[in-house]
Amino acid sequence: MASSSVSWMAPDAPLGRKLIGSGGLVLLGFCFLAWPDLLMRGSFVERVTHDHTLPVTAMLAVTLFFIELGIAYNRRQGVSPGRRETVAAVMFLLILEAPILMVVLPEFRQYRLARDLVAHGVSTQARLVRTMGTGCGKAACSDELFYSFTPAGTQQPVSGSVEVTHSRGEVDPAYSYAVDTQTVPILYDPQAPGRSMLYWQDRIARRASLRDTLSISGILLAIPLVFWACMMAIGLHVMRKKRRKQDEEAG
Q1: Cβ(129)–Cβ(159) under 8 Å?
Q2: Over the range 95-129, which residues count as b (16 or more CB within 10 Å of their CB) and which as e?
Q3: How many whole angstroms separate alpha carbon 7 and alpha carbon 17?
Q4: Rounded distance, CA 101 to CA 60, Å?
Q5: pLDDT digits 0-9 by tens, 83-129
Q6: Which helix (H) or strand (E) holds 189?
């Protein structure tokens, strides 16, 4: 009776329950990321496969898999304390880096999309459908522009959206243009019209820069890595001090 109440996240939970629980969490994450695509016209499959939904969901699944693998390894008989500590340290790093990777992966997807659109994208003026404020911080606010357009040579309208950010007191020029003209300048992929981006000044060109993408991603990934290294250094110092004290007491 007691075993039936064990959470799937508990270290001693049955493997089958862990797999079901992890699969349910991954499915929940996928639904959370994919539901906005259901509200737009056009191919749902096309948008889901080309935006950040699949890579972020895959990252969540891989993270859960390795965490469970580490827990299972550390519960094995005969594993030395040193190896247990190493596995725990790697799992801690993975937990720290996983949320950052979920941000970095979409950045690389945006880089690839921008690169493709620069190479063979088609420009058009999409119709502004509506705007929606998505949040405000201390220094800036962001709004989502929802638009619709009909690709050349087709009769099927396609929907899309883009987020614009403006500092407090200074509205983004692209947002002002869209609201004033009720149009959104975009570049879209003629082979997959659901792939589109705001076509304003040099924004797509900056997105298509691998150097800019790597520099931003490197900074984001370095923050938890530095924190992890500091925590490991402090932990090793405390452990060595504790072992030295134990040796002195034993001697």
Answers
A1: yes
A2: ebbbebbbebbbbebbbbbbbbbeeebeebebebb
A3: 8
A4: 10
A5: 777 888 888 888 888 878 777 777 777 888 888 999 999 999 999 99
A6: strand 183-189
Collapse the DSSP code of 17 into the 3-class scheme (helix H, G, I; strand E, B; otherwise coil) and give the result: helix
Q: What is the pTM of this model?
A: 0.58
* Nearest-angstrom CA–CA distance, 86 and 134: 41
Here the tokens at position 84 are 């247990």
The number of angstroms, rounded, from the C-alpha of 59 to the middle of its chain's C-alpha atoms is 8
Three-class secondary structure of residue 136 per DSSP: strand
Question: What are 12-25's pLDDT values in tens digits?
Answer: 666 566 667 667 76
What the block records as the tokens of 87 is: 């596995």
Calculate the CA 223 to chain-centre distance: 16
229: tokens are: 């290294």
- The residue among 156, 152, 217 whose CA lies nearest residue 186 is 152
- 197: β partners: 187
Rounded-to-integer distance, Cα 99 and Cα 91, Å: 13
